Amino acid sequence: MNKTRVRELVKKALGDKSASAFAREMGVTHTTVANWLKGDHMPDLDSLTVIAKKAGITPEEAILYVLDKNTEGDVDSIHRQIRALHTTNELIRVIKIATDRLEAIAL
Predict the structure, then answer these.
(1) Is residue 5 classed exposed, middle or buried when 0-12, 13-18 and 19+ CB atoms within 10 A define those classes?
(2) b (16+ CB within 10 A) / e for 24-59
(3) For residues 54, 46, 87 and 72, what is the CA-based torsion angle, rounded to 10 degrees?
(4) Whole-prediction pTM value?
(5) Distance between CA atoms of 19 and 60, rounded to whole angstroms?
(6) In degrees to the nearest 10, what's the CA dihedral of 32, 38, 43, 47?
(7) Which residues contact 20 (CB under 8 A, 6 or more apart)?
(8) Per-residue pLDDT tens for 34-82?
(9) Residue 23: count of CB within 10 angstroms of its CB
(10) Alpha carbon distance 68, 61 (integer Å)
(11) CA-CA distance, 92 to 96, in Å (whole number)?
């Protein structure tokens, strides 16, 4: 994981809250949050999921972001991939991800 991006994501999720208040909301210690902010430790997947929601993005976007992957996406590539889906379940999953993203940015 990219320590700088983890730090940025945690800061965004913190908003105006203190690290202690954020830690209480997360169910972790103040030290844990401080370590995330210093880049000494990385959040586990469950914590990253909560951090993502508090930062207003989907867990999938957070994972791509902290792994330093391109999150911009190529619309033509996405379109081709959707057209190549073979089952209704695959398409439902894509729709769910898109719906989650729309809800996240609408807040």
Answers:
(1) middle
(2) eebebeeebbeebbeeeeebeeebbbbbbbbbebbb
(3) 50
(4) 0.64
(5) 24
(6) 60
(7) 30, 33
(8) 999 998 889 998 999 999 999 988 888 888 888 877 555 566 667 777 7
(9) 19
(10) 11
(11) 6
